[in-house]
Amino acid sequence: MAKNYSKNVMLHYPRLLTEQPVISNLIKMYDLTINISRARIGQDEEGTMVIEISGLKKNVGEGLNYLKEIGVTFKPISKVVRRIDSRCTHCGACTAVCPAGALVIEDRILMEVQFIEEKCIACSLCIPACPYRAMEMHE
Amino acid sequence: MAKTIEEINEKIRKKKACVFTAEEIITYVEEKGSKHAAEEVDVVTTGTFGPMCSSGAFLNFGHSAPRMKIQKAWLNNVPAYGGLAACDVYIGATAIPEDDPANKIYPGRFLYGGGHVIEDLIAGKKVVLRATSYGTDCYPRRELKTTVTLQNLNQAFLVNPRNAYQNYNVAVNLSNRVIYTYLGVLQPNMANAGYSSAGQLSPLLNDPYLRTTGIGTRIFLGGAQGYVFWEGTQHNPTAERGKNGVPVEGAGTLAVTGNMKAMNPRYVRGVSMAGYGASMAVGVGIPIPILDEEMLSFVAVKDEDIFASVVDYSGVYPKRESGIVARVSYRELKSGKIIINGKEVISAGLSSYPMALEIATALRDWIRGGDFFLSGKVADLPDVTSGQTFKPLNCQ
């Protein structure tokens, strides 16, 4: 079966759901592939998890509906971390801390910093590392 | 044949001056040869844009009614120095509000400081002025609170005691915990390195012996025309140099000034360094007149010919001990990776090369368009023959 659709989302787990096998259910019930890039979930605490969900478009939709029904809220990663381009000076300080290769200088003559949103895992390390406060998190 | 500043200015007046940036001149010299290029080229423009903590501004608000001799003042809650005449203050780039938690919540974020106040003023924003005093017969008022804008101030000029550092340290962290420095967040065990210089575009790296840059030199400052008014603090012309004469550590510095009312907030930015403090990034560009072949040889300097010293900011630097980890070139630093003792270390800058290039290009276009004339210097800065060093402070 062709897995032709994928989505990067940030999940927000309410406290009561942190001990449920939510990811396992997504995989088994909807035939999805889940790639976890970041997770911060403790016992008796709220949590967040950044995942890439891939599979048939219909299954991805149903899987996300399942999350909604059980009370896990989510939003697309591209809306989680944003760069305010007017504040970015392309100094490159963020490129030393970004673990995902989302903030990179590809052209080493021009030295401009690219923000490749699809690669961002919303780890938030770039936010305090940016002296010009160009990176913003919308959790 | 040697040229004079007057001859170059005459060409600028006729819009016939041959001007290149310090990046463009490198390929020009490679193509045309240095003798030909020295005859053809009149001016080479440089640029730099990075955090420069020793920056600030003098402001005059005009007198309130009744009059007040401002003793303590705050702009958007950031303290300014009021130990001057009645309604003059100096706001420093690194000042932070008294209620900022600083590093009590480690690492502090330092979201708003003096540099941000200066940026907001230049951007035309309203800034809240609060002041207190003790009252005198001629200045009876004891407190005031109002809003001010740059346009309504009598004078507002940047006075930056130390800018345009001629080369700088590269910082690494040899300890086993993360450290927060003015050269960025440094991961343990030398995982990354922070540097801050525009390398081949940087003003004083293109005039290593300060032959044409001195007191009175007209420059690009924050998007306006400003001036060098003195040697900068910590000016150290006798710092160690490479065989090509270019310093391999922090060396010369400049004190600069300019009218804030003519500046552009794009080139004057408040800076927040996590765990370190607030500061201000300033855009500086200096024109270098190509008086002869020697000046041309200076401005043709390339990133691979400029070396910087790698220093451990977890040990040697805070303790003020001597010793470096390595020397690396700006070509290596700008590649994003440097090799130190066989280990690959990620390198990232705090000084923006694209902004430095934008400034050098803007200054080039001003000169080409006849809008900026060279001033020459009215006095020399202490140079390599002066014997002047950078002395430490001895205390108990």
Describe, in short, the structure shown.
Chain A is an alpha+beta fold and 139 residues long. Chain A has three helices and eight strands.
Q: Could you explain how this protein is built, in words?
A:
The complex is a heterodimer of chains A (139) and B (396). Chain A is an alpha+beta fold and 139 residues long. Chain A has helices at residues 22-30, 57-70, 126-129, and strands at 5-13, 33-41, 47-55, 73-76, 81-83, 103-104, 114-115, 135-137. In chain A, strand 2 (33-41) and strand 3 form a beta hairpin. Chain A is elongated. In chain B, helix 2 packs across helix 3 (34-40) and helix 3 packs across helix 5 (293-299). Chain B is globular, with a radius of gyration of 22 Å. The interface between A and B is medium-sized, with 20 and 31 residues.
Lay out the secondary structure.
The complex is a heterodimer of chains A (139) and B (396).
Chain A (H helix, E strand, L loop, with lengths): L4 E9 L8 H9 L2 E9 L5 E9 L1 H14 L2 E4 L4 E3 L19 E2 L9 E2 L10 H4 L5 E3 L2
Antiparallel strand pairs in A: 1-3, 1-4, 2-3, 5-8, 6-7
Helix pairs in contact in A: 1-2
Chain B lengths: L4 H9 L5 E3 L2 H9 L1 H7 L2 E3 L2 E4 L4 E5 L11 E4 L2 E4 L6 E5 L21 H9 L4 E6 L10 E6 L6 E9 L6 E3 L6 E3 L2 E3 L5 E4 L22 E4 L2 E8 L22 E6 L8 E6 L3 E9 L1 E3 L3 H7 L7 E6 L3 H4 L6 E4 H5 L2 E4 L2 E7 L3 H16 L28
Parallel strand pairs in B: 1-2, 11-21, 14-24
Antiparallel strand pairs in B: 2-20, 3-19, 4-7, 4-10, 5-6, 5-8, 8-9, 10-17, 12-13, 15-16, 15-19, 16-17, 18-19, 21-22, 23-24
Helix pairs in contact in B: 2-3, 3-5
